[in-house]
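Session log. Operator J.P. requested a structure for one protein chain; no other inputs attached. Running the standard single-chain path with token output.
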Amino acid sequence: MNLQAMIRPDVATMAPYTPVQPFEVLAARLNRSPAEIVKLDANENPYGPPAGVARALASMRYAHIYPDPESRALREALADFTGVPAEYLLAGAGADELIDLTMRLFVAPGDALVNCPPTFGMYAFDAAVCGATLVSVPRRADFSLDVDGVEAAVARHAPKLLFVACPNNPDGGWLADADLARLLALPTVVVLDEAYVEFAGS
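Structure written below.
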């Protein structure tokens, strides 16, 4: 049996996603100690968990048991922190999983979605995995979002989803409230990816 022949042709010919490199690989490539590397490209804490978090993890009674699949305690804590009701919150194993779940929920093969490059590469990668039609509205020369272009793309292609990172990954570009209001008025599901919002200040 030829396993390669069993793979979906559209997936077999896809360009692979290039993930961020781990400390050891970067350290070897740069000829530096891993302790000298501070990575900000994966939204990681370069200092490790605070002592209190390490103690809390060590004291967990049921760490060996599958956790609550609905993450109720986490969602309640996030609800208290954000003021957003827990029933509107979904927890996942990082942004990649949540992006994938969102696309699988809304996008069927051939459906359109809007992406605004340069931006986080997982939007385009997951769109390809889902067999979606990716409509790219490039950012302007200053990396600001082309809101007029997005509105035109939505009117023309009727996408299921619009992905916008704010602050944008990789350039940190910000979306003004007035521009966000225009996007939210569009007849599509707007996915506002705020993975790096802690870097944005107020």
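Operator note: The chain is about 35% helix and 10% strand.
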